[in-house]
Amino acid sequence: MTSHSPYHLSNPSQGHLNPFTWLVHRLRHWLDGIAITNPRQAAWICRLIPASCPFERDIRLGSRTVHIPALCRINPLYEQLIALRLRASSYLVQSSRSGFSSSFQQPDSHPVQESPSCP
Fold first, then answer.
1. Which pLDDT tens digit goes with each residue over 54-66?
2. Whole-structure pTM over 0.70, yes or no?
3. How many Å apart are CA 74 and CA 19, to the nearest integer?
4. Per 3-state DSSP, what percentage of the chain is helix, strand, and coil (rounded to 5)?
5. 14, 22, 64, 68, 79 from 7: Cα distances, Å
């Protein structure tokens, strides 16, 4: 069974994709497949990928203000990069929560059982 997904093409001549489109699809697949495995990697990714577009600006020219819109949307890898940054941020939050809760748990304490909110 053959797949029609461009991610599974081994080279551009096998499909109807031009080389640029093929490369973009391969890069998207690679970025989507990056697993966040430790806090150091997650922090590095968060520092590498900005949370907002660094190109969006308001420039004052005399009495007029010119707005330069965010250009990140024209980046063909924008969604994958933002998703990667979100995965890294989520990993950092989860790892800090587990470290935070384990640092305050007493060694001899028993887990607290929560009562259900509805009878």
1. 888 888 988 999 8
2. no
3. 18
4. 50, 10, 40
5. 12, 8, 47, 34, 16
The rounded distance, in Å, linking the Cα atoms of 41 and 49 is 12
What amino acid occupies position 101?
Answer: S
Beta-bridge partners for 60:
65
Rounded CA-CA distance 76/86 in Å is 17
What pLDDT is stored for residue 99 in this prediction? Answer: 67
Distances (CA, A) of 118 to 8, 9, 111, 112, 113: 49, 53, 21, 18, 15
Ramachandran quadrant class, 62 (left: phi over 0; alpha: psi -120 to 50; beta: rest): left
Tokens of 93: 């939050």
Phi-psi category of 37—alpha, beta or left, where left has phi over 0 and alpha has psi -120 to 50? alpha
Structure tokens at 5: 């997904």
Nearest-CA neighbor of 46 among 91, 98, 96?
A: 91
